[in-house]
Batch of 2 targets.
Target 1
Amino acid sequence: MDKMLSISVVLLGGTISMAPSKNEKGNSGEGVVPSITADELCNAVPGIEKIASVKPKCIKLIASANLDIMDVILLKKIIEELAEKDISDGVVIIQGTDTMEEMAFALDLMLDVKIPVIFTGAMRSANMVSADGPSNILGAVIAATYKPLANSGVVVLMNDEIHAARFVQKCHTRDVGAFKSLNGGKVGQICEGKVLLSAPVKKKQSFQIVNAHPVPKVGLIKATLGDPGDLLEYYISENYQGLVIEAFGAGHLPEKWLPLLDRVIAKMPVILCSRTAEGPVFENSYGYPGAEIDLIARGLVPAGILDGPKARLYLMISIMAGQEICKPDY
Ligand code: ASP
């Protein structure tokens, strides 16, 4: 009989760990709050003990809006140690869905290990009918035992679907199928308790962080109809180290932004991405002032398919790695 694989389950919090709050009289207060431990979550998954020897560990119990890049660095250290010392054959990270795509992408940019690393969470808290937490944990543990997934870098498993960190986005506030791979196919799915790969994605670059203190201030601004662009001034006066602009369509900004934009570019790297959900920013099609050819000539770096939040992490991590800011290889 094959040896049972050892899978570490690291909990950060999120809806999956939430239950109705209690007020000081012990009565149910308003709304759900993080309170369920990593052990309790894993114990509530029927059949998990047949898949792997699961080692739950709670490092935080918070809503995912409160996570930040230092938590990604903490996860990197934990996972590297588990992999290097042969303690775990795979790692599952459980957190809130609100920032899961950013945490997964940032970790993917920093981590280089030979074991599967899977993020999961839940859209429904444990007290709700048809809570999706237990099946997501089960799917994630199954995925973490599937060695070939390590080649895809960090992935997200939700609703039995496996998504590469660079493509995944939360696209719905409520649906258990909220996570989709935009700009690329799903890596695979769980079917009858097994991983089926469909479009295996290859892990790309990873960055060596050389300076994480202080965390670089990198902003994100979105172009909107008729906006005069005054906010650009803020990033200069507040000494930001980088800026990402979610431009219209294929990468277009109002002409009236250009004088201020030139001042921003003189101070910091600026990445150009699209506020449109799918498709890369263009580089060589439109010739008017404020269109992508002009913006790139002024010094903006095109983001490829990365959306604003992911381009911001890419820029932040490139700065932390002391790397020249170049077009992401996606
Ligand atoms: N709604 C969130 C979740 O799905 C809460 C959070 O992200 O922590 O977990």
Target 2
Amino acid sequence: MTQQDVIVCTDLARELAAAVGKLAPDRLFVLTDTTTHRLCLPLIGSYPCLGEAHHITIAPTDEAKNLHSLADVWTALGEGGATRHSALICLGGGMVTDLGGFAASTFKRGIAYINIPTTLLAMVDASVGGKTGINFRGLKNEIGVFNAAATVLLDTRFLATLDQHNLRSGFAEMLKHALISTDDHLAELLRVDLSHADLAAMQQLVAKSVAIKEHVVSVDPHEHGLRKALNLGHTAGHAFESLALEQGRTVLHGYAVAWGLVCELYLSATRCGFPTDRFRQVVSYVRDTYGTFAIECKDYDRLYQFMTHDKKNTAGCINFTLLGGVGDVRINQTATKDDICEMLDFFREG
Ligand code: GLY
């Protein structure tokens, strides 16, 4: 996978013009969903480099991250006269950058794309690192390819359009990045009160968080080893998300990841020696910031089943990424059903 330029913007108009100029596309397309079309496009719509751009808009939310929307984007590219030398700008949250990245990666065997993430989750995670794709047959991100955006442009001014829940959701991935990096970075995040988030200060924290992800992806772009560090919190987190979906409860991805971090830090503390004081601090921050996800003993079997179907598993074993300490990543850790029930007991009862 080619290296991508990730730019923390000071002047988005100039930086976008430079990114487009580098590609010199014969035609330029901008993909939004109806939400980012309304809230975010006005911020960049008048930039001269977008003067001739064709606009494509799809339905919002993860439910629209499907084959139908993908076909709509391919159709719009085809009808707009896109060639292999055209480029697509994806302006939106993770749904738009994942689906748009996949549409670009597959149209005429691949055209270049630029990501302008507009949610915190997309800024620190989805838009960086080249994972693209769609949901399929009820499974999240089931179909996709690794293919990096040419450039990712991060501008925290877009966060002003974000509600508290989505801000908190993105922050969970930042906590994960801190847990796999340094104690100092984790400590500074645990001091952040998201109810009074300062966007200028957030820019610095976003830059640090993205640098952690970029480093991991540059060492292991296709997730054979170190990139599995980024799965911390996600084995349990995805199971909570799937259970919520099945039970008709709405849960944002980052909330599920935060609850997954509690579970997987419990396993880290009990099996890998993760320090108890840090564990308690993170658990208390997560409980204060994200509340909890109500589960009952009768949900354990289903949660266990979801974990066994996780696409990160190999040969029937549930694979966790755990920590021996902050920054001390232990990949490919397996757990028995009893370990998982004990972990869920801790999550449920504290
Ligand atoms: N979201 C985890 C990764 O990009 O690998």
